[in-house]
Amino acid sequence: MKELATISLILMVLVSMPAIQSTPRHVDPSGIPDEYPSVIDLLSIYASMMDKVLLEDFRGSLENLRESMRIHVPKDVKYIYDRFNELLGDVLDKLNSTRRYIDVAKLDTRLGLLEDARGNLSMATYSLAQANLTYVEIRLSVIVFERMLRIPRNQLAVKLTSIEEVLARYRDEIRDLLNMLEALRETGLEETELWIRIDKNTVWVGESIELSGFLRSVKGYPLEARTVSIYLNGRGVDLLSTDKEGYFSVKLPTSGLYKPSLQVYAEYIPAGGDVGRYRASKSNVITINMLYDEPLIHAQLSHHVALPGQIIHVYGWVNTSLGKLPDRIYLDAFRESLSRSLDVDGLFDFSLKIPEDVAEGHHRVRLYTGSSGIIAPSERVLIIFVERIPINATCQAPVVALSGGNIVVTGRVMSSAGQIVTPLPYSKIIISGFGNQSIAYSDEGGSFKASINVPLSILTGYSKISLFIEPPSQLYKAYSLSLEVFIINPLYMLAPSILLAIALVYSTPLVKEMGATIGRKKPREAVEEIYVPEMASDRFFYVEALLMVGDATGLYIREYETIREYLRRVREALGKTYQIFEQISMLAERELYGGQPANRMIVEELLTRLEEDLRR
């Protein structure tokens, strides 16, 4: 019966405690072996990378490398995997640098900049040497890489030979260029002369400019059938071929070039058989003054601060120096485009509605006119600030609440436009807390009332309730606030009482036996009941110790006292003997509640020492 009562009370405690999720059973992550990446996927990525290396697409190959770095690999091979990819990235960078140096050296050679070409080839040689050293390290590490990543032997190593092919190709290309430079150094380059002129230095936008010029060697003979590039304001606009006298000419249009001035020049770069024979040349630079009329846009806003949904006006006028006006004016604002025709005086007036969903803050209103002939495009930007009406709320909630119940929140929503404060009806109030959510709406007077459930699983302590208020119109700002409520879990208050009941169940046999034992003794004063468990053997050793201590000190254990509480009460009275009684008490507690029987020889020794010390 005792065991049944104990189990029943324990079950009561477990059922009545708040619902606390037990830790779910998971497989220990450290016990799960890491999966190796697919061999086919790895080889596919590296094969694509090497194909792009052969095509000298180093940007694409580096993208493949970044893709491989995102693949998950086990921890025990991660260092090898990362180091191998780091080496690959390094060799790709060096090859890319080598390619750039070679290309620049080729251009320098065409331009006759032989010393510059030699310097770039020197840099290309150094970069290629670094790439070669890194490739040697890759060849050594790929063996370990294949073994650790479980790739069949030489499957990856074969694909890496693409790097070796590119290294050899660049080595030959550098050697050929160096030989060419040496030959040019011995023979020398013939200088060339390029000169241009124009028919007028000042033009209206839209007019053509007659450009002519000639190309000849420094020795004075014309260079026939050579290509000359024409540049206008740094941009190539035409390619001309020289005649048998070395002359060339062209008409350059200036439509749409609304700039105060332009610069024009020509450039000759040797090609074909001229490479290594003639030096490149650049002509004289001529400045062209441009004439055009740029309109002035004068504009104003009817409101510099506006509300969503409000209609504003953008008005003003446009004028030009020569009196000729653009046909239309355009407006861009709030993702909307409008246009209006200008009247004879250049006046305009736009009606613009502020979108209701527009964000609060500063917004651009852009006005502009297009180009037409000598009339240049023009632009004016105005700034408008869009604001929403602020709102606030007053809320009340209980300071203390119980788990398993409801919390009622009341309050009022108000809007404040300037000094005027008015109720805001039909606002949506969203109350969140304890994993739950409740929705309420304010009435005509702006008041609201809502309740939210507090689960029984919420522990005792402070909890936060959040309120978010959505106004009925986008004219108003949203509003949020939070409240703190102290939650009391009633089941925690019952737990100590239930545990005390369990202790009383254990103590019942102890009380019975102690009552019988003390009844046979003649006490010096009223003796209180003590705890004694039922034992199959003779009287429990702790009872002997209790009687000795009680007789010696006059302090007997009380009916409601535990072993440790009684131990503390007699500590001062026992003095040095307390240590012996403490050992006996701990042995009794372990045997009574922990199921660990005490060694009888040790118990007898302690009882003998206790009796002797108490007699002294």
Question: Could you provide a short overview of the structure?
Answer:
With 616 residues, this protein is α+β, with helices and mostly antiparallel strands. The chain has helices at residues 2-16, 39-54, 58-69, 75-111, 114-148, 155-159, 161-187, 490-519, 541-553, 563-574, 578-593, 600-615; strands spanning 192-198, 202-204, 208-217, 227-232, 235-241, 247-253, 261-268, 281-282, 286-291, 296-301, 305-306, 311-319, 328-333, 336-341, 347-353, 361-369, 378-386, 391-396, 400-402, 406-417, 420-423, 428-433, 436-441, 447-453, 461-470, 479-488. Residues 9-29 and 517-538 have low confidence and may be disordered.
Provide structural commentary.
By secondary structure, the protein is an alpha+beta fold. It folds into five domains: 39-187; 192-291, Immunoglobulin-like (Sandwich), CATH 2.60.40; 296-386, Macroglobulin (MG2) domain (Immunoglobulin-like, Sandwich); 391-488, Sandwich (Immunoglobulin-like); 495-615, no CATH class. The protein contains twelve helices and 26 strands. The strands form six sheets. Strands 2, 4, 5, 7, 8 and 9 form a six-stranded mixed sheet that branches. Residues 9-29 and 517-538 have low confidence and may be disordered.
Give the tally of structural domains.
Answer: 5
How would you characterize the largest beta sheet? 6 strands, mixed
End-to-end gap: 45 Å
Report the C-alpha radius of gyration, rounded: 48 Å
Unreliable stretches, pLDDT < 50, 5 or more residues? Answer: 9-29, 517-538
State the helicity in percent bands: 25-40%
Average of per-residue pLDDT values: 84
